[in-house]
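User: I'm putting together a small comparison set for a docking exercise, and I want a reference complex before I start. The sequence is below, and the ligand is zinc ion. Could you produce the 3D structure with the ligand included, as structure tokens?
Assistant: Of course. I'll restate your input first, then give the structure tokens for the complex.
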Amino acid sequence: MNVRFADRRPEGAYVLALPMTSGALDAARLAALPADSVEFVRRAAVGLRFDGDAASTADLFVSEGGEARRVVLVGLGAADSDAAYERAGGALVAKLLLSGEQTLVVDFSGHSAAGDRAARLAFGALLRSWRYDVYHTTLKPTQKPSLTEIVIVGAGAGAEAGWASLKAIADGIFLTRELVTEPANIIYPQSFVERVRGPLSAAGVEIEVLGEAEMAKLGMGALLGVSQGSRREAQLLVMRWRGADTAPIAFVGKGVTFDTGGISIKPAAGMEDMKWDMGGAGAVAGAMLALAGRKAKAHIIGVCGLVENMPDGNAQRPGDVVTSMSGQTIEVINTDAEGRLVLCDAITWVQRTHGVKTIVDLATLTGAMIVALGHEHGGLFANDEALAGQLTAAGLAVGDKLWRFPMSDSYDKLIDSPIADMKNVGPRPAGSITAAQFLKRYVEDGVTWAHLDIAGMAWSAKPGATYDKGATGYGVRLLDRFVADNLER
Ligand code: BES
Ligand code: MN
Ligand code: ZN
């Protein structure tokens, strides 16, 4: 989707969209219409019960110089917020993407909104336009997107100024969605690295990759234990964006490119969903692209632990004891609790190698998270009040919402093991919290850490305001905003 900003409408065919604040269906806002259709459109809107409610639309035609011009009124609601504009843009694209129309003109003339709000509408529209049709070979013309261009008109000079940054964030989100959408025969640890290398390098991100031999030398027995039943070689992908001359912070992502459960194998029904068990790693890679793309003034290290969890003659067994890079030993009670085994070595590696003092990890870690929060919030676990507050605020600001959970020694002792330093699962209750307690055992003294369990957020069974059903890109905007609000000031 091409987005541009212009002083006046283009010539030729387009759909005309008019953003309307709730209850403000007045002639002034409709002045962008041909004069002889203003009253007609006003009455039609009343007839359609359109009153400018957030993300509502009224779709009609007016006569313009003998031609039928499609006009869509789109509601901004009553609250003047970025989110309302994004939702309106998303609603327009949801309606028009397959409509046959190629150009959407959103006319802000006569609208009091500041230009940066218009850019937000374009951002919501762009995000909602993303689809991944590469494996569809038999789509009929009417099933293919027709809309290729969005022109924002009359929004003033402020509109275009912030666009480059928003575009960079959208590029990051699209990379995440692509990685999450691709099936596991296409995206596996090495191909994940190759898929992100081009865009990240072009944006100025330094890339380093550790293979299994290097990880073995470092003693990453927990991560490698997960990988040993797979024919795909595990990778530790390290991405570095030096946008400021400061000490780095780290983002760490769970990148299980497919999670069968291993020998503790999952039931067949729904197992295909486990292609998106690399959603944390996808979000970290996407966030790195967004940050580099908008030249964020921050120093960030992104680490993705990439493995495939398979059952096989060489797979690890329940009861196996592995030694992590930290030196701590783990009794692997359930090979399906593999995400924490991958993350613990990635967390140790980034602390030992880069001396980071702040870590945020993202992981589709537990089904229990979905039981607790559904698909409305990601779970937040942290050892630091300030970091928890910053992440919560960033999430609220961009719509990637988080809800914090408790942690304590009483939860921690639930993962003590009779044979090793810890086991990789606790009892069924509080499964998301004991998973977080496991990770916390790898966070060194003096390091502030937060864990985001995004199991319910990486994928959506139904369309949302700014995404279609499928991969959401959750986490990219959250991390980007966290950096903008706390590291770039
Ligand atoms: N990747 C899953 C968690 C998951 C489940 C994410 C469903 C998204 C949707 C994780 O590796 C896993 O299998 N967790 C187990 C942990 C259990 C064995 C303690 C789970 O949640 O059942
Ligand atoms: Mn699992
Ligand atoms: Zn998993």
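The CA atoms of residues 209 and 237 lie 5 Å apart. The chain has two domains: 2-160, 166-486.
User: Thanks, that's exactly what I needed.
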